[in-house]
Request: fold
Amino acid sequence: MNPGMQDFLNAWYPLIKLSAGVFGTVGLYSVLYKENKFYRFVEHLYLGLAGGYSMIALWTETLDDTWYSKMVGKAATHADAAVPGMWAYAILLPIGAMGYFVFSKKHNWIAKIPIGIILGLYAGQQVQAWWNHYGPQINKCMQPIFPTTLASFTVPSKVGLSPAQVTAINQNIYPSQALSNLIFVATILCVLSYFLFSFELKSKFFKGMTRTGRLALMIGFGAIFGSTVLMRFTLLIDRMYFICIEWFKQGILHMR
Amino acid sequence: MAKIIGDKLQSLPKYWLFAILFLVTSIPLFHPLSVPTPPDDGSADLYAHLMQVPAGSTILLASDWTNSTRGDSKGQFVAIIKILADRKLKAAIYSTADAQAPRVARDTIAEINAVRVKNGQPPYSQWNDWVSLGFYPSAEGQLSSIATDLRKAFASKTEQNPATGEQQDVFESPVLQKIYKLSDCALSFTITASKTSDLTVERLLHKTPLVLMVTGVMGPQTQNYYYSGQIVGLAIGVKGAYDLETLMAKGLNVPGGIVSTKIPASAPPLSNQTDVQSIGTLFYPPLQFALWLLIIMVVIGNVGMALSKMGAQSK
Amino acid sequence: MEFLAQTDPGFWFGQPETMDLRIKVIGCLVFGFVLLAVLLNVPSRWRKYIVGAITFFAGLFWILQFFWPQPLHRSPTDLPANPKEVVSFWLDDAVPVVSDFTSILTAMLTLLGIFSLLRVHLGRLFKMQKDWAFSLVLAIAFVCQATFSLWDYYDRKANPQITAGHGWHIQNYMSDLLFDGMVQQFEAAMFSMIAFYILSAAYRAFRVRSPEASVLLGAALIVMLSYMGVVTQWDGFVKSMAGSNQFLLNFQLSVIRSWIKDFVQTPSIMGIEFGIGIGTISMGLRLWLSLEKTGNI
Amino acid sequence: MLGEVPIGAQYADTGWFGVAATFMVMVFILYNIVRAHNRHDLFIRRIPGLNAINDAVGRATEMGKPIVMVPGLGQLDAIAVQAISIFTHVVRLAARFTTPIVLCCADPAVYTVAQEMIRDVYLQEGIEDRYDIDSVRFISDRQFAFAAGVSGLVLRDQAAACFFMGAFYAEALIFAETANSVGAIQVASSTETTQTPFFITACDYVLIGDEFYAASAYLSREPVFVGSLIGQDWSKIAIIVAIVIGVIMNTAQIGALKLNQITEAKSDAAYKQLAAPRPITMDDTTMSLMFNPQDDKTWKVERPQKPKDTADKGAGK
Reply:
């Protein structure tokens, strides 16, 4: 790289890089107004760049290390002993190649073999993973619904109490806590009953349970909507930071 | 009359809305202001656990995010790397969610090191402080493999030892030489923008204490794990980053620090306070304005509907 | 019994860069392609059973590993004490190899998706159909990104000081520009556009039409207010009014928000999750035993 | 101590409880699938979402505009196959009136399976020639390139009905809002709990949580779907019963109206006498001890050792 070019790049490359990002961001935002040629250009540029990177990343980030170097092993260097190669990994190339028969009219059934292996492994994983995910949560639903003391309705304030008194308060269940636990248990039972499909819930009690279940679902979804909206705006603020601060203020105006 | 106003209120052009949102999220960036908000229990618990880990121990860190969720995830990743560097803890970083993730993690640590070197602090160096273990497209398979035999899960991974300039096995690096199985790692972190948080709990539970740092959209769902005690710490979106930055500056349940009624543990602020404020503190104020805009628009929409209905009934 | 476990240093391993390993690798490849050729000509009524058997044994590995008694407190230098432990040792040792197989096959199949993307756009380009110019843009971008990132990968492997940022050449600049400069930023732009759609969806769709919609709206507003600076003013005002009266202190916004989160939101989401979890197990079993008529042949 | 070599790590102490629960769910599901094969009159209630699907296809047929279907963004897994099996019902309706359909995939394996399943529908309907291979497309495996591609397609083709079923993440609203802007009817369902509220606000009808699985069972009356749905119902009833029993037992053990004291507690998988009686906590109740197995570090298992020279070449080099 001749020095002239090197100086030019050292000086201007960061701004070129930021400007390319801003160009694409503005292009993609233009679809907010209406679908247009500029958007379609950046859309296809993006699909191409993303596809190109994904193809290469499969080799550089996975197949090179996890497949090829494990298959051929590594010669001894003065720092490490020799790592033997596992030749059985070579069988994966023909199995992977079977996947490409999906494009042939006659033999596309054979593409099901590599997919069958992946599906089978996935299915076995689901059976194994279920208990670790849900067991502890089912256990946590078993809350005590009776208070252990009627000293006061709500939990007394622990400000300025001796540690022994504080632990005593923490061990007891006050009526307000018992009521909250009852609401927790009632909610989980109503929501589960809403998702029962194999029998008709004719009795009034069951109908009431599923209607409260649906109302509880709406509270759950409202809370989800609230906390997710909060985070969506963060991503927009990050783009504004990229355009206004990193590109405009720090890039063009060179202000720190 | 009411109907005309009602219909007008309900049909503000979409593009005015977008223009206002652009302004509301960019102008506050130019002059930041502080917005004191109490940290969530999950963030305080995360900070307390991380500050109690003995110095020199190794953390397993799944960095499953890329710049597409930079707003949420980068603030969390930067906060954790700064705490690890300040407390001399080591990190083994891998990814099972995105082929680009290892490269994004490398570049972000380089950014942090540039600021640390400028402030005269030692950089968080590759090989001695952290190693990159690459990407694994099958999350389920790789996590199960880590749970049963960590050494075999990351076998044949090499990295350049700066002292000798040679590509050496990562298990000879100061980060991983004392690590034979998952329970040797002090904590397992997962910073993710996808479902790898669920997959990690399903496979690594009971092997080592788990911490999840997720984007906002995954927050409520991941709350169940924290509520059931399956994970010991939880940071949600930029609020998680903002909480960590506040705790890094002030400490938890220490004199002058943040007081938490639900988390009894106490933890000091970071020893070196330079460059603690970052993405969390910077993005939080514009977030307030954006939320006010959203609430106002919802109110306008509903008032418009009510007026239109009243107008229609009176006809 | 050592087939997948790969720990027996003799049969499954070959010393690197020796003729012995090359013969074994080539032999294995030849065997694989011969197997492929045989399978292509297998009578069609056997196909269903071949695919079903392969899927079954793939799934059987993880299910066996879950139900078969695992070795207790096994140290690396232990040998199995009885036949039962021979199986459990083999299962444990084979986990990393099986997870490698999944990673490698998933990677190989991802290439397949990229080929179909290229097929659609190259087809449009050569037949000069509508928007062929954009397909040309896609193809050029694809080729540039592929060549520069591969070139950059091997360049970084050869001289690692590039990763530290010195001595960059054209391929390092271009790979950094196309990847970090464009792909990452375009993806972030698309993801952030959701904020606009949320604002317009909330303005347009967020109406108090039914009791359910108003419950959803109420819960969402409480959550949003509790994240905003207003929570400190509201709580400060309540604290000043309530003093030490515990009951009144409950009207602080952060207390209301955490009560809803712990006692209504968490059980309601748990209820949905329990259902989905069991649904996923049931679909897993159906895929494992090839009961899915539409899934297979 | 369990005497000679214990039966297995996951069965030590109360570890068998999780394995037994998983086995119970498997038995419920497989038994009901077998039962559904023999008896075809098993009852499933009709979920309201299905009327919405048929209306949407009807509307698209009247307007002669295309139907866009997206089976979610996940890899080829249970959810993707289930979403495509709902789409086969949609395609069967659409194929009769030659309404154009587009199915966009974000995962190559899903693309391959979708290709097969949609071609099967045309085969079964006897109109193999009308099947256009490009009606099932792979857009991109990058989440947001996929979002850009699909929303561009919905805008250009002015879709009349959109079906978004399966695992969706943040980009779900881009589809729903774009489909709204062209006035398409949208029926959606996300197995991701956190995406459902967005679908509820932006789409016309939403299948919540398990209704997604119930839809394909009801539509196809397939013995496998019907049987597994009933097996799932039994498992949910088992969870409801477990929670009710757990609540009653824990309430009794913690002590109704007075806090019980305990004199011995379980640690390292064995009950040990306490120095002084202390109040019971949630971790001491029988139910939580059942759910949380304890590992006894003192279990010594004598096993023959590997000969010295090959010892280091083994697992832990």
